[in-house]
């Protein structure tokens, strides 16, 4: 699971993980969350975490 730093663009981190996954023959790639899932999908994510997009922010 790749969750990039909040203060950096997600794309370069997702690209690096996709490259590592391809080099190692991995067919599944988990990266991205509600705020950056579109970018993650563009870079090949097969699983993303979109809980807050579906259910809203956590209380507290």
Condensed summary:
The chain is 42% helix and 12% strand.
The portion of residues forming beta strands comes to 5-15%
**Rg calculated over all Cα atoms:** 12 Å
Largest sheet: 2 strands, parallel
Number of strands: 2
Uncertain runs are none
Structural class: alpha+beta
Q: Which outline best applies? A: elongated
Helix content: 40-55%
Report on this model:
The protein is elongated and about 40 Å long. The chain has 60 residues and is an alpha+beta fold. It has three helices and two strands, in the order H-E-H-E-H. The N and C termini lie far apart (25 Å). It is 42% helix and 12% strand. It has helices at residues 10-23, 37-42, 51-55, and strands at residues 30-33, 47-49. The mean pLDDT is 94. Strands 1-2 form a two-stranded parallel sheet.
Please name the defining characteristics of this protein:
60 residues, alpha+beta, 2 strands, 42% helix
Question: Strands, helices and their partners?
Answer:
Layout: H1 10-23, E1 30-33, H2 37-42, E2 47-49, H3 51-55
Parallel strand pairs: 1-2
């Amino acid at each position: 699971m790749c969750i990039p730093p909040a203060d950096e663009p997600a794309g370069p981190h997702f690209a690096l993980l996709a490259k590592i996954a391809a080099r190692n023959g991995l067919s599944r790639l988990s990266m991205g969350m509600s705020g950056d899932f579109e970018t993650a999908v563009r870079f090949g994510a097969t699983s993303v975490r979109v809980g807050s997009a579906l259910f809203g922010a956590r209380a507290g």
